[in-house]
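Cross-check.
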Amino acid sequence: MKDKFKRIFKGGLGQLTIPIIAIVLLVIFNLIRDPSFFSIGISHNNDGNIVLAGNLISIINGASELAILAMGMTLVTAACGGQDISVGAAAAIAGSAFVKILKASSAITWPTVIAAFLFACVVAMLFGTFNGTLVSVFKIQPMIATLILYTCGRSIAYWINGGATPTVSSPIINALGSFIPGIPVPTPVIIVIVVALVFKLVFQLTSLELFTQSVGINGSAARLNGINSTFIKLLSFIILGVCVAVAGCIGVSRLGLINHETLLLDVEMDAILAVAIGGNNLGGGKFKISGSIIGAYVIQMLTITLYAMKVSSTDVKAYKAIVIIILVVIGSPVIKSKFEKLTRKLRSNKQRVPAKGAE
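Predicted model, tokenized:
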């Protein structure tokens, strides 16, 4: 056990320490406040299927889109040293494209849904390429470059379906947004697991993780070592585009319609915060996808906790901001550096005591 703690705190605060501590504190707080907060029950949904229910299920289910977006945002942050603030608007565009294909079909079948999803991916990847080109080729700061799509993205989503908010009522769409018959776990949770496994597989089979970190740490040195930093930055935006499409399709499937004005509204800030809470450096470089995923669940658990405490929806953002500021400051380089100095000082003092006793 002692060795495990040493590994976690080796070299100061480990990258996953802050999000894990945040999760633990929220769990302890909720267990003290309400011991039954994390209880999981079994119920029946509107279709009569047996499903899992409870606050814990609401947390892992509600954070699905955020967790997926945070994975893609982590790559962009690591490679480019900046963030994409247009993911919510881009998700609305992808969702509109998804609905456009579904409505063009006479019947919503699995082939139609797959074709609609692939079309949404292509559309989101094209917009990701647009953002990535501005950043990687024209050297525009990511937040400024993506401000363009952030501003006009929802208008584009509005134009795709002619200003309408069409519904896509179908058992298949309902299953993708809620539960697959016979499986009690929400489908969005399963999709998050699949996306995370794909990332893990890509990192294991390719050098993408190493190249991304190298470009983020020192782009010039990466180029001297034969790494095409322009391509890596562009690729990170394209991968984020796929994540945006997945999140947008989940959002549409949950509601059974596309509302370009409200779909994943303000999710950009939560995605950036999830990356920050996950211990990733917002200036680029070394990263952990798992940290961002945990960060997404921290944000969602905090939200559910506040609602359980009867905090009004208008006040939730203010309370979330206070807690998140504390978490981000604790995980900042300055605090980490001070903690490392304190740890080294305590360790050196501990080593001196036996020496004095021996004399």
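The radius of gyration is 22 Å. The CA atoms of residues 18 and 282 lie 15 Å apart. Passed to J.P. for a second look.
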